[in-house]
Amino acid sequence: MIVRIMGEGQWKLADSHLVELNRLDDELLEEMESGDEEGFRRTLGAVLEAVRRLGTPLPDDALEPSELILPAGDASLEEVRAMLSDDGLIPG
Questions:
Q1: 3: helix, coil or strand?
Q2: 8 Å CB contact between 77 and 40
Q3: Which of 4, 42, 44, 70 lies in the 20 to 30 Å Cα band around 32?
Q4: Do 28 and 90 form a contact (C-beta atoms < 8 A)?
Q5: What residues contact 45, with CB distance under 8 A and at least 6 apart?
Q6: Per-position DSSP letters for 14-83, written without gaps between them
């Protein structure tokens, strides 16, 4: 799976890592619904860090279609809310 972090680039991530990302995504949704800004910041950072840690960065000149697009680490709660689907940021 190709994952794009807005403003940073793309990472190739094995599908087996989706379990960890989905767990963090569920936590992020709960924090957003409760209005927990501090928790939201922490968990969004954890999602992005997991992609960077578990994935392999693609070269800057690679133009692969992204299967998943994540917000930048400094995105606001409202910006992330606008990106959400029924499944959160990460489908599944």
A1: strand
A2: yes
A3: 4
A4: no
A5: 73
A6: -GGGHHHHHHHHHHHHHHHHHT-HHHHHHHHHHHHHHHHHHSEEPPTT--PPPSEEE--TT--HHHHHHH
Residue 75 is which amino acid?
A
Which sign, positive or negative, has the C-alpha torsion 64, 70, 49, 86?
Answer: negative
Q: Is the pLDDT of residue 5 over 90?
A: yes
Q: Is the pLDDT of residue 13 over 70?
A: yes
For residue 6, give the amino acid letter. Answer: M
Nearest 10 degrees: Cα torsion 10, 16, 18, 19: -150
Which pair of tokens denotes residue 20?
């960890």
Residue 5 DSSP class:
E
